[in-house]
Amino acid sequence: MKFIASGYLTGQPESHLVFINIIIGSVLKFFYTYFSGIEWYSLLQAALFITAFFSNLYCIIKYETQGKRFVLTLFNLSLLYFLSRFQFSYVSGFLAISAVITQLYGLTDNNKRLLALSILLMLLSSLVRFEMFFFTYPIFFMVFLFPLNKKLSFKVALIGGVLIGISFLVNQLSYKNNPDWSSYIAYNKARGSVTNNPNINIDDENIIKEFKLNIEDRTLLKNYIFTETLSEETLNKMASYGKENQVPVSQTLMSAYSNVEAYFIAIAVLLTVSLATRRFQIALAVVLHILMIYITVRYSNIVQYRILYSTLFCLLFLYVRSLNINESRTLSVSLIALTSVLLLFQIRDTSKNTYFANKKLHYIQKIESQLPEDKMYLADPTSNHYLISRKAFENPERKYIFFGWLTNFPSPIKRQSDYNSNPYKMTKYPLIISQENYDNLKPFIFNRNIYVFTNENKVILTSGKQ
Question: Which chain regions cross the lipid bilayer (predicted)?
Fold first, then answer.
């Protein structure tokens, strides 16, 4: 989305950021257009994240005292760790959580300014990622905020809901009035409803017969390549088939567990501790959170860690806040020690991430130095993680057409008259692909020039099947 906003993928700054509301997109487009040369997308995401952090900190310092203030301040510092894992879902999730925290303190103290801030945080969260806000906020509203002050909390939620509804309609109308983006969004939605859908087994004989899928269609779909057989209409029909032929409940639960195993262990421990210490509100919120995960996996798609961490943070924050820390020195010291250990692990992990990011950046630059300039390269979607970094596209002589979730993106369709949703059939364009992917997909690749990059930082030029 950074590459869309900045104009790298579109030729000029663009406000249609797919997952991010058009309002934020328009702000970014303005700054990229009139104040180019600055990475506005990253600056905005960082600013929103810091807003969430300091909103929490303000509430802690203003309303908590003694040991509890210190413990919660330390715990809030753990948010800064996620700046090293810059991703818009994290930003949206933690804005939603800050809306919960500021609203909780605001309702307790009848602080209207704090409640107004919470409404702003709700709106910002939904603008960054609409689905993420609704995955996070409603559970805490039902369990913690509404029982605290039914009338006032409902009023706050209603105002926030109206603002979110208006911004959502603005976003929908913007796409509806733009045929290119409307078509892309429809295709991308169809694509997303099939890929990683636990109810769709692409090798199931019934699906193969129903949709006339050959080995090429199925193999490439598993690698996020969409052959011409897999049109928007076909993908929608496959999604409908998945809804009508859902896997057993036990299989859905196993699918959810296997994808985020460590998280489920953590949330199960929190549920057990909450029940043992009679924190039944926390326990109820955990159960509803697990139910939300189940519904998402069963009827939509798999969940990933970045979707879940903000909820866990808020549950732990509320649990610690419920403890009588100021009355027990032992409890206070224990929590300070535990939180300090958590922060040390986060610092260690951030250091490791920085090391590997710099190593990958060096790897990318070494690969790029071996590629001929003045060419348009097709980027194999499952090799993208090798390519995407903050400096991977600084060389203006090289351009890439991306696939995967960028399949059928408006700008390459306009620029390349022979565009195909399957890059391996765009034979006149050179393909850049990892050795592993090339070995697995070689029978289906027809590009005349293929640049295969190995784990030894070498690029090998070969040709596809003729």
Answer: 16-34, 40-60, 90-107, 119-146, 152-170, 260-276, 282-300, 307-324, 330-347
